[in-house]
Every structure is written in C-alpha cells, then in structure tokens.
Amino acid sequence: MSQPQFSVILFTSAPPGMPGAETGAATMKVDGREALLRTVELFLNRDPIKQIQICFLPAAVEEAKRKFGGHLGFSGVKLVSAGPKWIDQVAAAGENLSADATHVIIHDAARCAVPFDDLDAIIAAALKSPSCCLTAPLRAPLLELDETAAAVALHSQAGFVQMLLPMCLSKSRFQKLVQEKQEPHASEWTLIKGSSLNVRPSGGGEAGFMKAMLQQLPKPKMKAPSSPFDEAQW
C-alpha cells in the first residue's frame, strides 16, 4: 500500500466565514519576519508533505515574487495567483495538485502560530477521516444578533467551539469542495482539539501579541541531519 502524501495550499485572501477580514495579514511582520514565511516553515521538512503552494491576489503577486520569490523558491514552494475569495485561490492551486497527492491541507497564510503537535494530530486524523479541522474552546458566552445587530438570545459557550485552520481533506473530498465551492457540512467534520494560541492577526498592532504567542508554542522535535545539505537548511 502506498504511503499517504499531503499537498499544502496556503491562501492569503480573507478566510472562510470572514468576508471582511484584512487580506494583508499574511504579510504582516511578526518578530521581524512576515507571517506567511513563518507559516510556510510550519510545513517544511515533514515527510508526508510533498508539495506546498501559496496563493496571492493577482494585484499582489508580482510584489510577492519580488519580495518572497527567492526564499519560497529555495524551499520548493510554488506561487499561484487567484482571487478575490479564498475558495478561488484554493481552486486555482488545486489545478496544480500533485498527481500523487492523497490529501490536501488548506491553511490561512496569516496563521503562523500553530503548534507542531496540532499539525501532527490533524495529519494523523486525516488518515481515518475525509474531512478534519482543528478547534479551540470558546472562553465566553455568545450573544445571537438579529439583522439590526440587536441581541435576541444568549448561548452558553459550552455548546460551541471555534473552527480553526488548517483543515485537511482527502483528495476526493477536496475535489468536491472545489467543484461545489462549499465547505463540508458540519456533520462531516472530524474535530481535532487544537491550541487557542492559533489566532489570525487582524492588523499591525497585533504583531507584539503574535510574537508572544509564538514564544509560548512548544518547540518541534528536531531530527538529526542525515547529510551536510540537510544541516545547511537549518
């Protein structure tokens, strides 16, 4: 039986459920380096991951090539141009999907504070379920609003969790997502408990907060380099 192979798609548009989100969050500098570069590095040097693509809006792709092309090219990351919606970017990257890919990881390039253990957990879960995502508990009750933004109901946080990224889909489920341009129904998801440190920055003022989040993350277990080339990458 062939080993599972994962293809990673990073989008820079507003993420699912956040149509008005700041699309420049992926290029915000966190502790001196752009969030998207830190996010890319989450997926490097992982045996099951064979392909990484990052998608930029058409108006931003030339600047992205100029600023990040060398770094991303050295890491084997392919740049894609599409938009304006996140699903447009995911679909465009899907056209270049490796023929050997068995699973697809979809992630927001702005979310660089993802613990390595959480990534290990979602990769492991994906081998048993066609649709997986990370979640985190809510810390406060929810107010339901009507169309005028007036509160109409109070809900305990106990019955809810936050849906985080990345999500991971089997290749066939990913192809259905691209074709229908709709996420899997709620009942289809296998939920993986993740870290509440996995947040999306919404502006430059949060750079210090994100830096603190990164400092709190558990450090990955490093493998001993098997060759001088591997050692040079570190």
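The record above closes out task 2.4. Task 2.5 opens with a second protein, given below.
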Amino acid sequence: MKATFINLPIHDVKKTDDFFGALGLEKNPHYADDRTTNCKLNDTTFVMLLEDSRFIEFTNAPIDRNAINHLVAMSFDTPQAVDDFFHKAIAAGATDTTKPSPDSDAFMYGKAFRDINGHIWELFAFLQEMPK
C-alpha cells in the first residue's frame, strides 16, 4: 500500500479549512475547489473533505449524521504531542469526547474530539509496548 485517503463529508469548505489549518495540518491546493478540501496527516495519509452534495455525488450514497459509522484514530510519539494536538482542536471549535479507558490506561494515553463537521478523532500514544 502506497497511501491512504480518507474521504469525509463536511458542511463548509472555508470553515473546515480554518479548523484543520488551526491544527497545523497542511492542505494541497491542487486537490481542492469550492466544494472540496483536504489535509495531510503524514507522508502517506490524507483526508479528503467533501461538502455534503459533493460527497453524495462521489459515493452515490446518502449521508446519515445520526449514525456513527467511522472514527479516525491517530498515533503520536508522546502524551504531550497528543495533548498539544487535542488542545489545538478544542481551541478551533472541536468538542471533547474523551472517555476513561481503564483497560488501556496502563499502556496507552489518549484523548478524543468531535470536529466541527461531527467526525470523531481519537489521538493516542503508547506508554509502553502494546500487550500481545
């Protein structure tokens, strides 16, 4: 596998650009227009963000915002890096959805948020080698 592209529906390109820009995520203007934007998570992972009407055209499927049918999880090197990204998201308008996780607290540190378009993002850092 060379790269991963996650496609998500959004409400408004400008507000979404502002939100992800506040998180420090890079946008490729060559893959953006008045109904589509994007952000780079790392060298091989990208999020394509399509306004609702464009997403429906792209997928040929309706959007159901009442269903939670996806969650984006991102790993970081340290708990501090998790906190830094999380606090940027909250400051940009995201909602804290962090839940205690006693089963994983011994080996993983995490935070979670719902972005301005309703998508859930989980951020985590391993505190030690993951149990096998």
